[in-house]
Amino acid sequence: MTTVGADDTEKNIRSIQELVNAGLQRVPAVYIRPVQERARCTSAPNSITNVRDHQLPSVPLISLSSSSRQLLQQVTHACSHWGIFQVIDHEVPISLQNQLWSATCHFFSLPTKTKLELISQDPSCPLLFSTGFFSHEKVKEWKDTLGFKPNASMNQELLPYFLRGPMLNFHKKMKVLAHKLCEAICTTLALDCKGFCDSQLSRETMGFNYYPTCPDPDLTFGLSSHSDFGSLTIIMQDEVQGLQVRKGNAWIDVVPIPNSFIVLLGDQVEILTNGYYKSVEHRVVTNTMKPRMSIACFYAPNEHEHVKPLNQFVTRGCPTMYKETKFGDYLKHGFNRGLNGKSNLEFSS
Length: 349
Ligand SMILES: O=C(O)CCC(=O)C(=O)O
Ligand SMILES: [Fe+2]
Hints:
This protein has a single domain (31-348), classed as Sandwich (Jelly Rolls). Helices cover 29% and strands 19% of the residues. It has helices at 6-9, 16-21, 68-81, 94-109, 112-118, 161-188, 193-200, 267-272, 327-337; strands spanning 61-63, 84-88, 127-131, 144-148, 203-211, 223-226, 232-237, 243-247, 250-253, 261-265, 282-284, 292-300, 306-307, 325-326. The strands form three sheets. An eight-stranded mixed β-sheet has the order 1-2-10-7-12-5-4-3. The protein is globular, with a radius of gyration of 20 Å.
């Protein structure tokens, strides 16, 4: 087994997966979190309970084939107490999910050089491969990501042949699911569904995440604590546990359930509802045993859209908590600042 020393790995890092496959035995310095930010640290001033130490509630599980009354009750509960739920009976064919998993596994099994060759430099190519979350982040995340940003003028021919079909078909099915979920959420808020969903789901992106095994999971995160910048995120995760959500003072594991999706409320829902529904803080921890993969579909307003609390959520007893902000500026601020809990909401405060 080759040993890759920390010093070899700090320049030009393109793929953490490649370093791990080459036998990396220590976490390189650029991936090491300051002590107070680590997952298991109990001496941090605002330290929160380690999820494994206590008997904690689990993330709500909702069947989309429930009666509409039951469905709305469950969505109301999940959105007002959690900002996250898992759904089953969603009508996204398991065969399509499996096709996309196989294609994604194949992509991540390729050498970094081949991965990069598959991603065209043509500006109309909607794909981007990266390590960590941002190219300029101070401490890197323990993950590699293939980002997909579909748009009307993208050249589909530039998508790698083995990913093209499953990716585009899955993206189409997930849009239908996103609308269904958004309509349920709107109904619980007594809002005009069409206008709300059309604007909040108009910017679509997908992230294919690969979290390699880590020699010392206590030192690093697959993805550090954050809330999503957009409105709604739907995640398909494999059978390897790693995603955790913050509930009060505890981090709770989102336990993998076969043929389910995870639904998360993002910051724009919190802004529009003036904090009535809140975005959920979440993170991904790594492990020494098995790599983890997830596919996240992000829905958000267009970048030119201005977002502010809707009138019906602003009352004398509940004055406006957020100022009007252009979503493009919110996004830019978040990307420049990096992931840090729910702090990006301060930009709109
Ligand atoms: O990998 C996951 O389960 C979570 C991914 C995530 O939170 C994100 O990409 O924003
Ligand atoms: Fe996220």
